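On clarity, I found the account of how folds are encoded harder to follow than it need be. Since the whole study asks how a given chain folds, the encoding of that fold should be made plain. For illustration, here is how one protein appears when written out as sequence plus structure tokens:
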Amino acid sequence: MIGLISATAAGSAGCRRVASAWPGRTRVYEGPVGDAVRRAFAECEQLVCFLATGAVVRLVAPLLVDKASDPGIVCVDEGGRFAVSLVGGHGGGANELAREVGELLGAEPVVTTATDSVGVPGLDTLGLPVEGDVAGVSRAMLDGEAVALRADVAWPLPPLRVAEAGAYSIRVSDRAVEPAEREVVLRPPSLVVGVGASKGAPVDEVLGLVEDALRDAGLSVKSVAELATVDAKADEPGILGAAERLGVPVVTYGAEELAAVDVPNPSDAPLAAVGTPSVAEAAALLRGGELLVPKRKSAARPAMATCAVVRRPGRGRLAVVGLGPGARDLLTPRAKDELRRASVLVGLDQYVDQIRDLLLPGTRVLESGLGAEEERARTAVAEARLGQAVALIGSGDAGVYAMASPALAEASDDIDVVGVPGVTAALAAGAILGAPLGHDHVSISLSDLHTPWEVIERRVRAAAEADLVVTFYNPRSRGRDWQLPKALTILAGHRKPTTPVGVVRNASRPDESSRVTTLAGLDPATVDMMTVVTVGNTATREIAGRMVTPRGYRWQEDPK
């Protein structure tokens, strides 16, 4: 919950704006400001104070305990010009909250945390438990000193300023190792503990068994991702209690699923009780991984719990990102987030140049030229399979005549794939032309480099006969100068010569140009590969220089 506090009419107006925008996420505190701040501090995870920073500092100073538990606090000035991250920039999420509040109110977010200020990921913001010299290693990264990365477990991380060797180090490990001097240890959630339990097994017995198994194997309890068991034990108090104390979820599987898993230590007892010869080992192994601790029983007599531990490899992450038509303000916030999250960026060189300034230091860039689409797709998938966080970029929407389809044709279920939509060329051109896509429409690429012309021509004829608005991608190049005239001729057989046609070149870019002409008046020689051509249907009209296709198929009244 976010507590909202104000002292003036302007501040109260700001509170109301935030509260109305984030219903259920905020609570407005009224009354004397000091009392309101103290109540919100005790009850909320974050605070937005429409007060001077000095006043908030004096009010919260006596309340601060440590950065791990203190709420994040953002201050907004009386004029609503700045959203200042004051306390809990990382641990309390104040830095991100300042950006959110700034976007909502039109205020400038002010973030002074060193790593955020220079675009270096904070080691305590990666979503992993962290131990060791966080301040020292972070400072070394900021100062450009050599920081070595040692990974006992491959895990998709954002870009970090690291080297092969250095006086400082970052270690990614699920082993029970203590951080060395000048070292940070990140704990990935790579361990799955399979658990079986008799009815009424005590929480302490289950938890003690799990902790003993991890300790004896030299594994860190902080890397446990989940407890896994059979569906029949989904409500077993001992298992649920142990998971709650460990701070992890319980995942359950059907007995038939578990019975199909090949395990080293099957038993007749669970087969008779719940229908599978293995619970602990099978539940831990069901989704793959390396069995580090075979089934072991608790020390109690009689033993009422069993467990097994599996290490699952870190799943690489492939984000297929659409960059939009080229203008920075048409690049979506989600796309920007994915570009900053990726440790490896794969893309066409000219597209990489568009967003290079958004990449964090340490991002590895793999760029290539035109005609290497399949190679880029294979490279991106291969990097993800190595456990990397990868962004594969394409113009417009990456799923429209771009990189998503060749990448997903290469990918299997061994990596996580995220699609990030972008503004397509057809949509960008349509917005410039007016409203040509107001009714049913289709996009057709006239490039026959990958699609036989016979197939393209059949699609153009179908669109012509169906009276669809048509947007032509890749309409004409120096080596392909006859396809567009041919396609226009096909459409002319079903539409009047006066049918409006929109021509947009370099939509949303500084050298953008556009015009509305007619099917008879379009000169194909004026079109190139940077151009999108939109041909209206029989209801499309030119009104005040704009193309408009009615939402209903017929106009209520012919404007002419």
Notes: DSSP finds 18 helices and 28 strands in the chain. Residues 233 and 494 are 67 Å apart (CA to CA).
